[in-house]
């Protein structure tokens, strides 16, 4: 009995140490790696289209992104509006870039929706093209109202209550440990709506984006080796 308990405690300590090293390692990587995009630049591109008709705005923003970040934007055959059920709200997203540490997507809703923002190991910024976004921060007693052209920052570890008005559309950039955001993004789908088709679309587009970034990385690495050997 005592031996067993001792073994259990040792196992727990080992697992905790391993987790600690893993979290620290990812944190170190996130703090020191180079990024393809930056929040300021994505906001600057998007805010020019504030008040435009959302569909036309997204088309033009996509063109700008393809010119600025060749090879990092998913091809048009992979552009798909996918429903997102999370934190009690329901929206729709179109992923245009995703890697282990960054993503860019178009997001919004055609009807009013509200709920919990989620707490992420990522910094997330949203630039509004149309509509209205109410954000109620933890610990406060008032909400803030954002409109077209505004950029809303959601810091790592923060949590808010949010309300998107009908026909609110935005460009979203996330930077952090992106796989950690998936459980929240899929929780309501897997355990609430049980819409496994939507869950499949979500995982599929992320897998395609990861594959694209991975291939690009391998190609660059090979070129680097050729140039240096
Ligand atoms: C998230 O934002 C905070 C505050 O600006 C910054 O210190 C941190 O480095 C950011 N994290 C990443 C992964 O960019």
UniProtKB/TrEMBL annotation:
The keyword 4Fe-4S does not apply. Its main location: endoplasmic reticulum. It comes from the Eukaryota. It is found in: Endoplasmic reticulum membrane; Nucleus inner membrane; Nucleus outer membrane. The keyword Cytoplasm does not apply. Keywords: Endoplasmic reticulum, Membrane, Receptor, Transmembrane, Transmembrane helix. GO terms for cellular component: endoplasmic reticulum membrane; nuclear inner membrane; nuclear outer membrane. The chain crosses the membrane at residues 12-30. Pfam families: ERG2_Sigma1R. Belongs to the ERG2 family. PANTHER family: SIGMA 1-TYPE OPIOID RECEPTOR-RELATED, SIGMA NON-OPIOID INTRACELLULAR RECEPTOR 1. This is Sigma non-opioid intracellular receptor 1.
């Amino acid at each position: 009995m005592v031996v067993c308990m001792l073994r259990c405690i040792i196992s727990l300590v080992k697992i905790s140490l391993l987790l600690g090293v893993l979290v620290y390692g990812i944190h170190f990587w996130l703090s020191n790696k180079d990024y393809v995009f930056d929040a300021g630049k994505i906001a600057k591109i998007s805010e020019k289209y504030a008040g435009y008709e959302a569909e036309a705005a997204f088309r033009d923003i996509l063109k700008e992104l393809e010119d600025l970040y060749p090879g990092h934007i998913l091809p048009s055959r992979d552009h798909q509006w996918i429903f997102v059920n999370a934190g009690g709200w329901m929206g729709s997203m179109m992923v245009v870039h995703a890697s282990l540490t960054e993503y860019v997507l178009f997001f919004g809703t055609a009807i009013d929706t509200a709920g919990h923002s989620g707490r992420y190991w990522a910094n997330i910024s949203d630039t509004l093209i149309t509509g209205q976004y109410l954000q109620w921060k933890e610990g406060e007693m008032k909400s803030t109202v954002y409109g077209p052209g505004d950029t809303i920052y959601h810091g790592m570890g923060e949590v808010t209550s949010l309300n998107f008005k009908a026909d609110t559309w935005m460009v979203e950039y996330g930077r952090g440990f992106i796989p950690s955001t998936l459980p929240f993004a899929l929780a309501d789908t897997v355990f609430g709506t049980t819409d496994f088709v939507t869950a499949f679309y979500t995982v599929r587009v992320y897998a395609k984006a990861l594959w694209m970034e991975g291939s690009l990385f391998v190609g660059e690495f090979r070129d680097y080796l050729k140039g240096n050997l």
